[in-house]
Automatic annotation (TrEMBL):
This is Large ribosomal subunit protein uL1. Belongs to the universal ribosomal protein uL1 family. Part of the 50S ribosomal subunit. One of its GO terms (cellular component) is ribosome. It comes from the Bacteria. PROSITE patterns: RIBOSOMAL_L1. Binds directly to 23S rRNA. The L1 stalk is quite mobile in the ribosome, and is involved in E site tRNA release. InterPro entries: Ribosom_uL1_bac-type, Ribosomal_uL1, Ribosomal_uL1-like, Ribosomal_uL1/biogenesis, Ribosomal_uL1_3-a/b-sand, Ribosomal_uL1_CS. The keyword Glycoprotein does not apply. Keywords: Repressor, Ribonucleoprotein, Ribosomal protein, RNA-binding, rRNA-binding, Translation regulation, tRNA-binding.
Length: 234
């Protein structure tokens, strides 16, 4: 077993005996124990009582974090003509059609969100094996296949986060930067948890939200009380 560095060991020691704390307590603890020289991301992982291999238990959706993510989102748009111009005017980083398809096929993927107009899907569909595993495939269910390109690009740039249950029923996402105020991080966390709660699928039986864990990019994790994280949710 690899020996822990002094920084990692000290951080883990600070977390010992602390479980199912409030969102605010977790945020304060994580922020105070960040010792790295870059602005870490606050990461959340939700363990759900679903099996995403079954269609009626798949969890996916999108949420606009009230305080943004703190991350510069690079957006690619598949569109032609006026819609391509609309994408560029809205701030899209990459806009194209067949040329963009060829770029992606070559392995050059320099974007974090992919949006497409419906007429572009026959082209985008060829990229399923490339974009799918990276969770970049445009999907009308999360608003990334749309004719309202301006709104989709602005939402992506403004702190919108997509989520999808992966193997084992775990949903993972970044919900802000550690440089954010504690209150803003807590607000983002509760907004994300609320969105996942509302996305509960019809096939989910028993306990839906089993466990919530928060951590920083390089730090250890701490469990948050589900009831507390759900405070204020409709």
């Amino acid at each position: 077993m690899a020996k822990l560095g002094k920084r990692t060991a000290a951080a883990r020691e600070a977390f010992v005996g602390k479980e199912d704390v409030t969102v605010e307590e977790a945020v304060a603890l994580i922020k105070s124990n960040s010792k790295v020289k870059f602005d870490e991301t606050m990461e959340i992982a939700l363990n759900l009582g679903v099996d995403p291999r079954h269609a009626d238990q798949m969890v996916r959706g999108v949420v606009g974090l009230p305080n943004g993510t703190g991350k510069t989102m690079r957006v690619a748009v598949f569109a032609r003509g006026p819609k391509a111009e609309e994408a560029q005017a809205a701030g899209a980083d990459i806009v194209g059609a067949e040329d963009l398809m060829e770029t992606v096929q070559s392995g050059k993927i320099e974007f974090d969100r992919c949006i497409a107009t419906p007429d572009m899907m026959p082209i985008v569909g060829r990229l399923g094996k490339v974009l799918g595993p990276r969770n970049l495939m445009p999907n009308p269910k999360v608003g990334t296949v749309t004719m309202d390109i301006k709104e989709a690009v602005e939402a992506a740039k403004g702190g919108q986060v997509q989520f999808k249950a992966e193997k084992g029923g775990v949903v993972h996402a970044g919900v802000g930067k550690l440089s954010f105020d504690e209150a803003k991080l807590a607000e983002n966390i509760r907004a994300f948890v609320g969105a996942v709660a509302k996305a509960k699928p019809t096939g989910s039986k028993g306990t839906y939200m089993k466990k919530i864990n928060l951590s920083s990019t390089m730090g250890p994790g701490i469990s948050v009380a589900v009831d507390d994280a759900m405070t204020g949710q409709a």
